[in-house]
Amino acid sequence: MAKQPSTNRANRGSSAPQDRAAKIQAVQKATSTGGANKIVIAGIVAILAIVFAVGGVIWNQKSNESDVAAGGNSVPAGASVDGGLVTNASVKLVDGAPTLALYEDFQCPNCKAFEGAFGSAIKEIADSGKAKVSYHILNFLDERGTNQSTMVANGAFCALDQGKFMEFHNAAYAGQYPEGDKVTLDQVSTFATAAGLSGDALKTWQTCVKVGKYTNFIKDTNTAAFKIANFKGTPTVILNGEMLTLSTPEALTKAVTDAAKG
Fold it and tell me: Which range marks the domain in which residue 59 is found?
């Protein structure tokens, strides 16, 4: 009897390529899906990085704003209401060095004139350690209805946060706006730019000034100054507790030298 030809071997031979093709497609699909997952994960990581970066900026801004919202009690680094801001704290003082306290208001035209005449002598005294030099920044001229004294003073202390107090101080007097003028943040920002602040540093400074981080410190310094006997206004120079009347830079240098000897 003739037997029907067996097809089992043929069938096994023909299914092998199909099985391999199916496996290849499965691997391709898995690889394709994995690549997509990697792309999705990378995208999520990138988005999270942006969120955290933006969140950090917002947090810093809120931190500055909270200084005022919590009562504005921020005190400039190295400063105190009674002791002022010592600008040569890193300088080794000579033996018996006196304290030279300078009281100024950034809106005061006479303060600008004083800095123009005595600024170089004061810098030499500070840099050489002949005296401990402290600045007391007031805002009493704003009592006439302006904002210039307080905003520029905030600008100086916000610049101090970035190591630029004297640079800002000098720029503010060089470009001083007329007494009685109200000023904008953009106007005061020109002093910060002249002091060397730019980019993110300038933005940080602007946020600091905008929220008035040091306003209460400035007000308290102003109040304390007018409690000093015979204090009338700015500029005022006090050497070891004695109010000076000065005519020349040389007279100031001599007074400081004599105070160190005595």
Answer: 19-70
Domain CATH number, residue 148? 3.40.30.10
Per the structure, the count of domains in the chain is 2
* pLDDT for position 5: 34
Three-class DSSP category at 112: helix
Q: What is the pTM of this model?
A: 0.75
Q: Is residue 11 part of a domain?
A: no
Measured between alpha carbons, how far is residue 183 from residues 32, 137, 146, 194 in Å?
62, 18, 8, 17
41 and 160 fall within a common domain = no
62/88 same-domain check: no
**Among candidate residues 194, 183, 122, 112, the one with its CA nearest the CA of residue 154:** 183
The answer to whether residue 14 is domain-embedded is: no
Give Cα separations from 24 to 30, 68, 129, 183 (angstroms): 10, 66, 82, 74
Higher pLDDT, 225 or 40: 225
Strand blocks (E) in 196-253: 236-239, 242-243
Band of residue 57 on the pLDDT scale cut at 50, 70, 90: very low
